Amino acid sequence: MSALSAKERGKVALWQIKKVLHCHFLDLSLCLSALSDPRKGVQYTIEEIVMAAVVSFLLKCSSRNAFNLKSKDKQFRQNYYRMFRLGLPHMDAVNELLEKMDTEAFEALRCRLLSSLIEKRVVHRLRFFSKYFCVAVDATGAYQWGDTPPEAIRAHALKKVSASGKTTYFSLVLEAVLICSNGMSIPLMSEWVANDGQQYDKQDCELKAFKRLAVRMKNYFPRLPICILADGLYTNVALMDICKQYQWQFIVVFKDGNLPSVWEEVNSLLPLERNNTSQQTSCDSTWWYANHYQWVNDIEYQKHNIHWVKCACENQHRKTGEKKNNKFVFLTSMKVERQNVVSILSAGRARWNIEDHFNTQKNRGGELHHKFNRVNFNAVKNWHNIRQLATLIGELVEFSAEMQSLKNQIPKMTWKEIWENLNSLLIMCPIEEVIVEFEHWSSAKRQVRLE
Which of 378, 109, 133, 98 is nearest to 249 (CA)? Predict the structure, then answer.
């Protein structure tokens, strides 16, 4: 089968967006229309305003101005209306609404859509365990505000004083991301690491933000069986207390020097646990892989029963004989056994997917570092929530079987090129034929198959 042209690739991407919205988010229009609108006497509905923001992120537009430039094109405006049956507002109108909107409204919208996916069991087969959904938590730098941010931003930003005495301001955001076994990273909830705008003795920090995030996550998803994946910063009793209280599991990176008393007990028990080992070997066209597993169960730490597990990886190049060694060590609340050790280690190592998620949001079209609003922290948070909503839709589009097949048709084809194909299609070609065909297709019961 020959590779598709750029125009045909754009049509496939367009079809998959329509397909995902139809199969998974059919009530999105109703959800947007139900949002409380603080404006009066407006030209565009709140659904049109918010959907324009979602689409700007979905099409990987680098700024509000970039989307406005597209909107000036007559063909793009016609195609946009054919896709969504909505008017296309100016991004300044979108920004004005987001300055006034309650941030909790967009968070509730995100969680409602995610709950719908979970209820429909869309991601159940992509869990690492038969029961728990793996949620990675980590913070990332979102914005640098320099040394003279607007007062409305300064009140919430974190500050750093250099050795020379210069003060700079910045913002961090803590993300909870649902990690799937196929590599999909679905943003679950966000919590800003931010000061409250009042006088404080100590700045906000990532661990404080996690405690707030955990409370809200439990409120929105009270019965969701969760396994928290986290780096070495979270190897502490605070995380263990929260997981025990909410009946969550955890797998956290365990570095040398963390919790010395636990390391001491592990080292004393390892010689006695000689049966708690296993090995797994595999290969591909380039490398031989050998994974050696060790574990120690039932370590008591401040009224918690925790378990230690290690994977030593030995990789050898099949042609050159080059060797690469690495090791991964975790603490977990789940008892480690021969039949689940591989799943536990796979889930623990999959925590790295959140780093790739951040890289995508910063460098592959998410424009996380770009300030869509520079003077209003409420709008900053709302723009971010809409970005995460668009990311949710985009992940389901990119991991559909059709899009994965499309990407694999041409060696080194990137998602950036495919989204550029879609943008070019919307600007240069009428899409009425595609929409008519899709409407005929969607008249029957359909589903999206994920890879």
Answer: 133
For the chain, the straight-line distance linking the first and the last C-alpha, in angstroms and rounded, comes to 20
pLDDT tens for residues 226-272? 999 999 999 999 999 999 999 999 999 999 989 999 999 999 999 98
CB atoms within 10 A of CB 321: 8
What structural domains does the chain harbor? 6-107+371-441 (no CATH), 131-361 (3.90.350.10)
Q: How many CA atoms lie within 13 A of 97 on its CB side?
A: 27
CA distances from 32 to 37, 48, 111, 118 (A): 10, 9, 13, 20
pTM recorded for the entire structure: 0.94
Q: Does residue 174 contact residue 138 with C-beta atoms inside 8 Å?
A: yes
**Rounded to an integer, what distance in angstroms lies between the CA atom of residue 278 and that of residue 253?**
20
